[in-house]
Amino acid sequence: MSPSRKASAKASAKVSTKARGQIALPFEIPARSAPLAEPIVPGSERDHEIATALGAWFDAVARDLPWRRTRDPYAIWLSEIMLQQTRVDTVIPYFDRFLSRFPTVGDLARADLDQVLSLWSGLGYYRRARIMHLAAREVTERHGGAFPGDAQALRALPGVGAYTAGAVASIAFDLREPLVDGNVARVLSRLDAIDNDIRSTTGQRALWAAAARLVPEARPGRFNQALMELGATVCTPRAPRCTACPVNGLCIARAEGREEDLPVLAPKRKVPSVRMVAAVLWAGHRVYLARRTEGGLFGGLWEPPMVEADSLDEARTSLAEAGIPERIVLREVGRVRHILTHRRLEVTVARAEVPAALRGRAKLASPYERASWLDPDANEVGVSRLARKILSMSSPPAARAEVTRR
DNA sequence: AACCCGGGGAT
DNA sequence: ATCCCAGGGTT
Questions:
Q1: Which bases of strand C sit closer than 7 A to a protein CB?
Q2: Within a domain: residue A31?
Q3: What's the CA–C1' distance between A200 and B4, in Å?
Q4: What is the pLDDT of residues A140-176, one digit of tens each?
Q5: What secondary structure does DSSP assign to A97-113, as a single string?
Q6: Which of A324, A177, A188 is closest to A253 using CA atoms?
Q7: Which residue is nearest to nucleotide B9 (CA to C1')?
Q8: Which residue has the higher pLDDT, A323 or A350?
Q9: What is the dihedral of CA A121, A124, A129, A131, to 10 degrees?
Q10: Is residue A391 domain-shared with residue A312, that is, in the same domain?
């Protein structure tokens, strides 16, 4: 966020006069003198109108998404785990593959983690897959294979937080439970003109209170999905399409000309850059891959050993601890850049051909736990997008198309 | 409250 | 480049 944007956001928390009076209001909404001191009355006529209008709008325009074609709590839970911090369009093919490979929660529980991570490869936030697997086992063993039908028990499952519990409870079980995700936070911050940083504890409290106030007894799941659909397609972060909004006449931010100033967001820290060296050893079509320990970054995934270093020369001793003997002659083949939420990785890629007779195994140090010679295209284990880029760059031209393909 | 955890699409 | 996405867990 630029300094000026930040300043205007802060200023708007006190008073918003910039655009007021410059737009034609469809009707009068009295400006609230003390927004946080005077909470909107629960069960008001306005709340009811919002719920009604959004429900009807959703019935008319809702996108046809795979997880909207089922009432199976397992399928809906699976979609919600995948959708955490991940866009709808990205999730769809993964959701379809997962459901056909694991049609029931029992099938998922019986799978081994490498298999699950293989199907998850490329989706990101791999801890979700591991925790989801744990939850599947918990549902199978402790709940007899049926998802619990109340928000509190859902919330107790690993990987199910406040949002996901509200989503499964309302969408799969028709329970009047609220939910707040990124979309809903934006929509509600504008509808009610909530001026707190939506990531702060105070802001979250205000948002959940608003969501709980609004969610209707009738078809709460439809209402919650309507809020998210509105945020995804109309009430967008920039240039919201207010003229197409079914509740534009009930939106306080719009009435005050502030829709572009909300939600308020604290500035983010900038991400540090990290230089690494990856060593790719080929023996025919197999490559030496190490499995990362399940705790941290890329946990449980397999990759060519990678160490933090500024140059190949500097990397040799650390690479030895990852099972790459120092006598192997590595040659640089290029660089890969990979952006994560909290780090920018710049990886120098080096490779070598190793005769099959020289294949060895080694005791590995953290973050690796073991290693093996694998065909990276066999889809037996989890491989990150970063590792795929590295493999693609280092493989012989004839094999490049194979490695690049998902 | 701050930090960790991927990858990609829109602008 | 920047933002942010149907967030949750850990410290």
A1: 2-9
A2: no
A3: 17
A4: 999 999 999 999 999 999 999 999 999 999 999 999 9
A5: HHHHH--SHHHHHHS-H
A6: A188
A7: A87
A8: A350
A9: 160
A10: yes
